[in-house]
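Example 9 (inverse folding). The structure is encoded as follows.
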């Protein structure tokens, strides 16, 4: 069933478990993710980045996800990930995404507050949630030294000021994780500053969002959840599962020309990778919804 993200936070979530926010870019990834959620029997967040929207189109992505979510046996909330373009975020909210992330964390604090406030006012009038970002989450392209990386982490006091000024509903912070694939190749450490998570949560009391968590050990994920992380974005691990399975499927069936048969093991691989995350995050059912 298609669900508003706020329904997922009706119960006792923060400190107990996290929802995965799975990035999707196409039909097969979406089918795999939803099959995982149905098998485990828990709600999830499905999200699209600006890259996915550029690839397939905003309306195409939204309608595809919404159609599948309506038919799904578990609650699914739709979210826009890392939006830099405020107008596109507004279009998405008008289409029916119940949550959108504005990522103007590269701007000055004042500009980030101003732009976030603009989106929050629009979103709240439409009944949608906004995820803000404060601090800079490193990406594959952002090579910085350890000391420089420390300076990018979210300052808890700044997080509190940002939340007070903008009235965002969920908050993405930089707790030391890195976006993308570099750490999966052992080229960067997947570090999480758990004390900082607790400091930020104690000040803002909002569901905190962890980005760039692929490759973070399970025990660290558990500590992050215990201290306030309630949404964890997942992208890289599903991409890896997808690509590996697709290569294998083509090798296994060199004569096959039916894409449905080629893609079947790919959907299965995405599903299995997503199930691992649902178990790691101990994602639970919401009593009021099930
Ligand atoms: Zn992110």
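The amino acid assigned to each position is listed next.
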């Amino acid at each position: 069933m298609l669900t508003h993200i706020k329904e997922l936070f009706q119960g006792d979530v923060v400190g107990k478990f996290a929802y995965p926010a799975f990035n999707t870019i196409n039909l097969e990834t979406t089918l795999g993710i939803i099959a995982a959620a149905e098998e485990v029997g828990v709600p999830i967040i499905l999200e699209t980045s600006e890259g996915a929207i550029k690839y397939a189109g905003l309306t195409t992505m939204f309608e595809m996800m919404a159609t599948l979510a309506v038919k799904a046996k578990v609650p699914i909330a739709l979210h826009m990930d890392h939006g830099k373009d405020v107008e596109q975020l507004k279009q998405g909210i008008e289409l029916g995404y119940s949550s959108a992330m504005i990522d103007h964390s590269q701007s000055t604090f004042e500009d980030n507050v101003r732009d976030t406030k603009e989106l929050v006012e629009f979103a709240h009038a439409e009944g949608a949630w906004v995820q803000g970002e404060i601090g800079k989450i490193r990406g594959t392209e952002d090579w910085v030294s350890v000391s420089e990386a420390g300076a990018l982490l979210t300052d808890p006091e700044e997080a509190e000021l940002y939340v007070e000024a903008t009235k965002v509903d969920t908050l993405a912070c930089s707790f030391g994780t890195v976006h993308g694939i570099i750490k999966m190749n052992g080229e960067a450490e997947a570090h999480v500053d758990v004390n900082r998570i607790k400091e930020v949560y104690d000040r803002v009391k909002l569901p905190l969002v962890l980005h760039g968590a692929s490759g973070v050990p399970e025990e660290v994920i558990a500590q992050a959840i215990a201290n306030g992380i309630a949404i964890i974005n997942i992208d890289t691990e599903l991409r890896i599962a997808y690509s590996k399975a697709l290569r294998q499927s083509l090798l296994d069936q060199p004569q096959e020309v039916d894409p449905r048969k080629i893609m079947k093991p790919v959907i299965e691989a995405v599903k299995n990778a997503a199930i691992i995350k649902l178990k790691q995050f101990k994602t639970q059912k919401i009593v009021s919804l099930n």
